[in-house]
């Protein structure tokens, strides 16, 4: 057994990339100002594609159901920093769950999670649950291989601070996904609270507002978004959501004021989130040229992201370019 282990170790050392150049490439794209810039990104074959499902509430307390959605939302926000990860959270594919006869509130069978992850072209999926023991959050995660349903890793996290807990969870997830250690040691990985909010009450109100909006309770969603911003006025994701609620559901012209704050403080956000927010803004203001530039750059930098290809497909659709539209949708 010792000889076998030694042989495996030698194989890993011999064939594992000696430097990031073996797993990265340089791509050229155009920035907002028309400048040509080079970016170093992981080669497509090395990108890790993962679907993240809602976390199951094992506390027995339904008032904590907001954490079921907040925890994957924080994971999503944290993972937005990483070029190696192509991820999608359940709120983006609830329609697949409804098509299978379930609702977003149901606990899903493992076989359905595996099937959905495969149809989304994700190689992995994350199944998780949470509890509270002695005022401490306990989160259990299981990382699965979408192809065969085997468990790759299983972890438990205990932390009194929900933001620190997610930082630990995401860091371990990257290790379990075998992202190159050299990359993890050198890349920027900010605490999730620095790119979202530092206030748990603001987070709770924001997530509850999302749920009320999902249920068409616009007045309650409006109150909850506003309360989140009363707690943390630089919670930019809450500003974005409230602006969209005001514009689309309430016909409130003050939606524009939120974008003044977002654009002023946009450097707080990850590059990937900046893409999405700027594209929303250019769409709202009718700047089709800048929108298309960002859509093209987004696909170049994040070729495995469904949202990126959907955005570019929307550009080609509006240009009445059916061939490129079809190509983007197939990607």
Q: Mind explaining what this structure looks like?
A:
The chain has 331 residues and is of the alpha/beta class. The chain has 15 helices and 7 strands. It has helices at residues 2-15, 66-79, 94-99, 110-119, 162-176, 181-186, 192-195, 200-214, 218-231, 236-248, 255-264, 271-285, 288-301, 306-318, 322-330; strands at residues 24-30, 36-42, 48-57, 85-89, 124-133, 136-145, 151-159. The strands form 2 sheets. The protein has a 5-stranded mixed β-sheet with strand order 4-3-5-6-7. A two-stranded antiparallel sheet has the order 1-2. Strand 1 and strand 2 (36-42) form a beta hairpin. The chain is globular and about 50 Å long.
In short:
By secondary structure, the protein is an alpha/beta fold. The protein has helices at 2-15, 66-79, 94-99, 110-119, 162-176, 181-186, 192-195, 200-214, 218-231, 236-248, 255-264, 271-285, 288-301, 306-318, 322-330; strands spanning 24-30, 36-42, 48-57, 85-89, 124-133, 136-145, 151-159.
Which characteristics define this entry?
single chain, 331 residues, alpha/beta, two-stranded antiparallel sheet, 15 helices, disordered N terminus, disordered C terminus
Which helices and strands appear, and what pairs or packs with what?
Layout: H1 2-15, E1 24-30, E2 36-42, E3 48-57, H2 66-79, E4 85-89, H3 94-99, H4 110-119, E5 124-133, E6 136-145, E7 151-159, H5 162-176, H6 181-186, H7 192-195, H8 200-214, H9 218-231, H10 236-248, H11 255-264, H12 271-285, H13 288-301, H14 306-318, H15 322-330
Parallel strand pairs: 3-4, 3-5
Antiparallel strand pairs: 1-2, 5-6, 6-7
């Amino acid at each position: 057994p010792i000889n076998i282990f030694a042989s495996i170790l030698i194989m890993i050392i011999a064939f594992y990339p000696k430097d990031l150049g073996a797993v990265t490439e340089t791509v050229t794209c155009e920035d907002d100002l028309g400048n040509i810039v080079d970016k170093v990104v992981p080669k497509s074959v090395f990108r890790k594609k993962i679907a993240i499902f809602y976390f199951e509430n094992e506390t027995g307390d339904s008032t904590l159901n907001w954490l079921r959605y907040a925890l994957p939302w924080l994971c999503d926000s944290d993972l937005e920093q990483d070029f190696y990860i192509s991820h999608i959270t359940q709120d983006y594919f609830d329609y697949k769950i409804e098509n299978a006869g379930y609702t977003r509130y149901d606990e899903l069978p493992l076989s359905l999670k595996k099937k959905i992850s495969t149809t989304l072209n994700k190689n992995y999926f994350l199944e998780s649950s949470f509890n509270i023991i002695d005022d401490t959050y306990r989160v259990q995660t299981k990382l699965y291989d979408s192809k065969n349903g085997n468990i790759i890793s299983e972890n438990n996290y205990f932390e009194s601070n929900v933001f620190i807990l997610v930082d630990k969870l995401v860091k371990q997830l990257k290790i379990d996904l075998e992202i190159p250690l050299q990359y993890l040691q050198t890349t920027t990985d900010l605490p999730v609270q620095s790119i979202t909010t530092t206030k748990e009450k603001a987070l709770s109100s924001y997530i509850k507002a999302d749920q009320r909006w999902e249920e068409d309770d616009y007045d309650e969603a409006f109150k909850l978004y506003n309360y989140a911003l009363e707690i943390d006025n630089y919670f930019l994701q809450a500003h974005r959501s409230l602006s969209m609620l005001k514009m689309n559901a309430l016909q409130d012209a003050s939606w524009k004021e939120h974008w003044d704050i977002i654009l002023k403080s946009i450097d707080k956000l990850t590059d990937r989130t900046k893409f999405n927010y700027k594209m929303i803004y250019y769409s709202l203001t009718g700047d089709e040229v800048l929108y298309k530039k960002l859509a093209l750059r987004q696909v170049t930098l994040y070729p495995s992201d469904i949202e990126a290809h959907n955005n570019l497909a929307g550009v080609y659709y509006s240009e009445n370019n059916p061939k490129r539209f079809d190509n983007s949708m197939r990607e």
